[in-house]
Amino acid sequence: MAFKQLVAALTVALSLGVAQGAITRRVACPDGVNTATNAACCSLFAIRDDIQQNLFDGGECGEEVHESFRLTFHDAIGIGSNGGGGADGSIAVFEDIETAFHANNGVDEIIDEQKPFLARHNITPGDFIQFAGAVGVSNCPGAPRLDFFLGRPNPVAPAPDKTVPEPFDTVDSILARFADAGGFSPAEVVALLGSHTIAAADHVDPTIPGTPFDSTPEVFDTQVFLEVQLRGTLFPGIRTGGNQGEVESPLRGEIRLQSDHDLARDSRTACEWQSFVNNQVKLQTAFKAAFKKLAVLGHDINNMVDCSEVIPEPPNVKIKAATFPAGQTNADVEQACASTPFPTLATDPGPATSVAPVPPS
């Protein structure tokens, strides 16, 4: 009897394996090198290799990655009750209109850098912008492997102005804008701001271009959620605050957005903000889910092709735990979440140092 049960179990297992194999059967791509679960994804391999080598400098987590990722957001958020097509590439097709919007200051540079790639590949602008962003982020240690869905049609009109939140907007305004754009919750808004861990500002304060938002702009980590909660300190001879949308940062060479500062201290978002401090797994999971929602705004995901397998796996490296910058401790935290204790963290050794700007490529 036992032998018969074993044979039956093996038969079921083999049947399940065959069924699973049928579900995941891959097709050979015309390039003779790659395979895909859907033939529609095959063309993306050449695009991926092209932008990795020639836009992202062989796979670096540098300024082109930061700017390409910023562009994904500025294009996708252009939707709401007042119109707009969401993640449709309108910001590139109607560049003259949308780059004139105050919130889109500076995105014309990455749009122009991406134009040659878009011209030589068979892909719509909306798909290219989101694909380039997801591929770029895969170069950053600590980042999640983002999803990518293919099938955005060409845009038919520019997005309306005032759809992109700005650094000096109030928390009320920012939360309302995200809710109107795609029903984002306050927790999802905070998760999306995890993108600031690999961000730098060129235009918030044009006197200090390439200024990062945290001390590790080349790593997708939780350090930004810690450093935004530190009390600001003005250093002699170092301009770290005063422009619209900018407040002082406790680190030399670092910029803090007014909106980040306020969201980290608002009762609706403070505890969620704090929850990401030193929680790399939560950041990866929550950011990936929120960005998947953002990247398909204006489209029915059920009518798109899942080509996430073409996105490279981010570097498999151990991410350093969040630490207080040298000279900072828990006493320097301006904690706004009353219900949960602030995590206990180590402090970096040595005297305070300056955060280097992100160099232009």
UniProtKB/TrEMBL annotation:
Ca(2+) 2 binds at residues 197, 214, 216, 221. Disulfide bonds join 29-42, 41-307, 61-140, 271-337. Heme b binds at residue 196. GO terms for biological process: cellular response to oxidative stress; hydrogen peroxide catabolic process; response to reactive oxygen species. The keyword Lyase does not apply. Binds 2 calcium ions per subunit. SUPFAM superfamilies: Heme-dependent peroxidases. Belongs to the peroxidase family. Ligninase subfamily. This is Peroxidase. It comes from Irpex lacteus (Milk-white toothed polypore). The lineage of its organism: Eukaryota, Fungi, Dikarya, Basidiomycota, Agaricomycotina.
